[in-house]
């Protein structure tokens, strides 16, 4: 399986970079991993709805340019479906079984994802009703993908 993670913004915090690199290394035993960052748009603190949409659209264009045409796309969105780790693992396993060997996960910027990205997505996934920093989501997502591969192979992993 080839996993793409397309995320808005550059990871700055050293501890997040270390965590992302650690899980990417662990995952490399199970799948090819491509971590791709697209620049975020600078946004003032107070935006009109129209300005926010324009920013999401610009970021969305950059995201869409990074996603392979034949990839199954999973957008991380608060309004997406919540799954247990076991459900997530089973769904990833089904994708591989049914020939979806390229899976792209998309993490938007602080304003979320554009309508164009959401239309391109095959599904929307939510990790919680809570809002997490988009920078932290990369680490959480990689850990869950790693956990999914361990579950699917029947390998031990802490609960």
UniProtKB/TrEMBL annotation:
> In which compartments does the protein localize?
Cytoplasm
Its top-level enzyme class, in one word, is transferase
Q: Which GO terms describe its molecular function?
A: rRNA (pseudouridine-N3-)-methyltransferase activity
Which residues does the record give as S-adenosyl-L-methionine binding sites?
76, 108, 127-132
Note the SUPFAM superfamilies from the entry.
Answer: alpha/beta knot
Q: Which UniProt keywords apply?
A: Cytoplasm, Methyltransferase, rRNA processing, S-adenosyl-L-methionine, Transferase
Q: Which Gene3D superfamilies match?
A: 3.40.1280.10
Q: Which reaction does it catalyse?
A: pseudouridine(1915) in 23S rRNA + S-adenosyl-L-methionine = N(3)-methylpseudouridine(1915) in 23S rRNA + S-adenosyl-L-homocysteine + H(+)
Identify the domain of life.
Answer: Bacteria
A single Pfam family it belongs to is SPOUT_MTase
- EC code: 2.1.1.177
Q: Output the Gene Ontology cellular-component terms.
A: cytoplasm
Query: Is Coiled coil there in the keyword field?
Result: no
What is this protein for, i.e. what is its function?
Specifically methylates the pseudouridine at position 1915 (m3Psi1915) in 23S rRNA.
Q: How does the record describe its quaternary structure?
A: Homodimer.
Family, per entry: Belongs to the RNA methyltransferase RlmH family.
Q: What is this protein called?
A: Ribosomal RNA large subunit methyltransferase H
Organism from which the protein derives:
Saccharococcus thermophilus
């Amino acid at each position: 399986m080839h996993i793409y993670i397309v995320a808005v913004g550059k990871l700055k915090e050293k501890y997040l970079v270390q965590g992302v690199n650690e899980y990417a290394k662990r995952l490399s035993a199970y799948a090819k991993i491509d971590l791709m960052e697209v620049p975020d748009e600078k946004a003032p603190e107070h935006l009109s709805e129209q300005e926010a949409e324009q920013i999401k659209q610009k970021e969305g264009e950059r995201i869409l340019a990074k996603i392979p045409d034949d990839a199954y796309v999973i957008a991380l969105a608060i309004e997406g479906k919540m799954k247990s780790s076991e459900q997530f693992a089973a769904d990833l396993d089904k994708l591989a079984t049914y020939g979806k060997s390229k899976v792209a996960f998309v993490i938007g910027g602080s304003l979320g994802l554009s309508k164009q990205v959401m239309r391109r997505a095959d599904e929307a996934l939510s990790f919680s009703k809570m809002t997490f920093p988009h920078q932290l989501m990369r680490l959480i997502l990689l850990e869950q993908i790693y956990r999914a591969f361990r579950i699917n192979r029947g390998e031990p992993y802490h609960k």
